[in-house]
């Protein structure tokens, strides 16, 4: 980012956080039917960039606010800068990407035909294939794919599952590609692991390995 653009961006971010602090009381009470406040947050976040956002319960504090790069590697550097400039506010934690969830691997989403799809992924399995000297990986994912949905929606479900399991940062910087299969190839059978082990598995393989240069924001 060029110097003058960086200064302009930082100014916008500081203005956003000033507004956030001034409106903490109503932000703490936000719900999905509060369209005017949601529209206002949408507008203010869109002034910073092509990001998405979430407000909800925090992992260690009462509330959390996430500004997500929406899976885009190049945007991660910007959302990290936004988090870096976040205020120190009692009862709030801030994230530059979606963190891993403490969850039951059950979730829902709306597909392209406006159908609500419910997924129980507790028994899905995966295989990690080394890529780039054990610093990033190709991931093969197998459900019981009883989802009556199209291929695009299957990948949406996979993305929700992977981000919920390892977090968006690792998904963007460590997972090179995702392949969804109905069954593993014969030479890979026996190497699969339950999806609930993916986070620990990835951490054990990566350790302190740096993010590959071509996967850095």
Plain-language structure description:
Strand 2, helix 4 and strand 3 (92-95) form a beta-alpha-beta unit. This protein has a four-stranded mixed sheet with strand order 8-7-6-9. The chain has helices spanning 3-22, 24-27, 35-48, 73-84, 151-166, 168-174, 198-206; strands spanning 52-57, 63-68, 92-95, 106-110, 116-120, 125-131, 136-142, 175-181, 193-194. The chain contains seven helices and nine strands; from the N terminus they run αααββαβββββααββα. Helix 5 crosses helix 6 (168-174). The chain is globular and about 60 Å long. The chain has 217 residues and is of the alpha/beta class. The termini are close together.
């Amino acid at each position: 980012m060029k110097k003058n653009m960086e200064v302009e961006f930082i100014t916008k971010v500081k203005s956003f956080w000033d507004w956030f602090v001034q409106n903490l009381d109503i932000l703490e009470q936000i719900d999905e039917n509060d369209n005017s406040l949601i529209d206002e947050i949408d507008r203010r976040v869109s002034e910073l960039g092509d990001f998405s956002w979430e407000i909800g319960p925090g992992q260690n504090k009462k509330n959390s606010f996430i500004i997500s790069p929406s899976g885009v590697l190049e945007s991660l550097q910007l959302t990290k800068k936004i988090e870096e400039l976040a205020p120190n506010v009692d009862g709030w934690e801030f994230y530059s990407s979606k963190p891993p969830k403490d969850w039951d691997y059950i979730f829902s989403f709306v597909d392209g035909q406006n159908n609500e799809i419910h997924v129980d992924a507790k028994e899905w399995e995966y295989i990690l294939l080394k890529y780039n000297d054990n610093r990033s990986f190709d991931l093969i994912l197998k459900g019981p794919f009883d989802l009556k949905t199209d291929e695009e929606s299957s990948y949406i479900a996979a993305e929700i599952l992977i981000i919920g399991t390892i977090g968006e940062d690792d998904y963007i910087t460590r997972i090179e590609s995702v392949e969804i299969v109905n069954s593993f190839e014969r030479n890979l059978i026996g190497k699969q692991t339950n999806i609930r082990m993916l986070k620990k598995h990835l951490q054990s393989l990566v350790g302190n390995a740096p993010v590959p240069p071509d996967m850095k924001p």
